[in-house]
Amino acid sequence: MENQATETRVLMHTNKGDIKLKLYNDTPLHRDNFIKLVKEGQYNGLLFHRVIKDFMIQGGDVTSKDAPMNKQLGAGDLGYTVPAEFRYPKYFHKKGALAAPRQPDDINPQKKSDMSQFFIVQGKVYRNGELDTLELIANQDIRKKALDKFYRPIAVDLKMLKQSNKREYNKRVTAVNAQIDSMILATPGHLIFTDEQRKAYTTDGGCHHLDGIYTIFGELTEGFDVLDIIANQPKDQYDRPKKDIRII
Fold first, then answer.
1. How large is the average pLDDT for residues 40-67?
2. Which of 72, 125, 151, 183 is 20 to 30 Å apart from 41, CA to CA?
3. Read out DSSP for 154-192?
């Protein structure tokens, strides 16, 4: 592990190759916890116990070190949580994102992270049209409310204006669309992909549906080929690789 003035970098050796990670400074609770576990040697010998192609690879189950083959893993942790540190949309689940798993909302409404486990996103590549469709589906209820509020009360006037004064009509429609967009952006739960997200999701890929749900506290800087190798391993019904993939 190399401590630098601006960030912390971690070199993770596995029996499939090396992975290099950087940890974010603006998720200090997760960063410091990860550094602590690395220094204590908690990850030495543990497995990547859950791998799903086009999704992610997960490790850090403290019971996985000497686990017999075919044993279902994933429940082993250190018995404490770390408060959520969401920095969305600055950090999102692009390929290589390092994030912390957690318990579901019904028993963990504050979205606290379970440590020591972590996952690294592989994801899939999207087309821009797919992202457009995802936005439309996610925002359709909000857009309907916005249309009811800003468009429908003046729909008749706009129809008449379109016939009599095209320039004024275009001006009014532009203003209404701006009001609708502002309402969507101001409503919690809306989905508008940033330019950075679109670039990442349509080139390297990722898992957009995880955004804002899990804390991302770092990212892969080298070893994307190793990530792909691990994610593509044959696995059992529990998504555990049929041959152990170990953190050395």
1. 95
2. 72
3. GHHHHHHHHHH-HHHHHHHHHHHHHHHHHHHHHSTT---
d(CA 57, CA 96): 10
For the stretch 179-207, pLDDT in tens is 999 999 899 888 999 999 999 999 999 99
Rounded to 10 degrees, what is the CA torsion of 173, 181, 129, 56?
A: 180
Pair 118, 42: CB distance under 8 Å:
no
Q: What pTM does this model have?
A: 0.86
Burial string for 52-62 (b: 16+ CB within 10 Å, else e) reads eeebbbbbbbb
Cα–Cα distance for residue pair 226/14, rounded to 1 Å: 9
**What six digits make up the tokens of 144?**
């309907």
Q: Which residues pair with 82 in a beta bridge?
A: 113
Q: How many separate helices (H) and strands (E) can be counted in the chain?
A: 6, 10
Do residues 113 and 81 touch, judged by C-beta distance below 8 A? yes
* Model pLDDT for residues 119-143, shown as the tens digit of each residue: 999 999 999 999 999 999 999 999 9
Structure tokens at 239: 């998504």
Cβ(48)–Cβ(245) under 8 Å? yes
